[in-house]
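Readers of this paper often ask what the protein records in our data store actually look like. The remainder of this section carries one protein's record, kept here as part of the documentation.

:::
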Amino acid sequence: MAVVRSGDTKSPSSRRHSNPMSVGAWPLLFIGPLLLGVMLFYYYPIFGNFWTSLTKANAFGGDPKFVGLENYAELLARPALPSAIVNTLIYTGIVLLAVPISVGIASLMELPGLKGRTFYRIAFFMPYLAMPVAIVQVWRLFYNGTFGILNQILRAFGVENPPFWLSTPGLNILATAVFGIWASIGFNVIILSAGLKSIPKELYEAASIDGASAWHQFKSITVPLLTPSIFFLMIMQAIGGFQLFDSLYAMLGPSNPAADQSRSLVSLFYQEAFVTQNRGVGAAVTILILALVGIVTAIQFWGQKKWVHYV
């Protein structure tokens, strides 16, 4: 006979069912397919790439031989590596400007009494749904050095010899980053709009009663309470910046004279792994990208303790 101690209000059966381990294999049954997909499509490629970066194989990937860190030494000796790192960091730093721009746009869209709010949301979000390579073709016409709209505007303001934006090293990275900002604003605005809806309206009413202006309300209420969403977007924007390839490749084209000086890290990976068929060095590039993304993300998580406010 089970003896219930004095003061113990729970029966033995209720204590048994409150133990998480008593549910058996049911949790594993539900999360097992998800874990299998994550292991198969995320972790396996990472470890497979790491192993490939330590081996050399023929052009078809057969007969791999372990060479240790030889591929990394060969990668560090590549003249294109420093410029690829710099181009990627410049692009990432510029596209991060999309976050504060999106904060301003989302705040304006959530102003009380604004008409056509749904239309504005759709208008800003539609570019995010379109194929980047297709949209880039329109931007290439915009940046065209001879008859592009941008240079036509510059000539109208007295600039006699406007630059060729897509064939000048440095300027083409800037031009691609401007496109990246424009293309990411739609997603950012949707996330920030959801964050704005979670801010209690009573805070704005109390601030208005105290005489706070709209700017002070934005600076003291909106931005601090929106910092979790801002932090999330900064993480995603930085990771997306390090993955720069398709828009840059489509913007410049394979015959661009500045293509070699304008490679990103992913472009360097494509060149090594698929053009020159040096898959070991290509895999080393992916590990380098993973390491840089990890470092930047760790710095962001360390810094968020000082400025992100969780309610």
Notes: The domain at 85-305 is CATH 1.10.3720.10 (MetI-like fold). The chain has a mean pLDDT of 88. The beta strands are 55-56, 65-66.
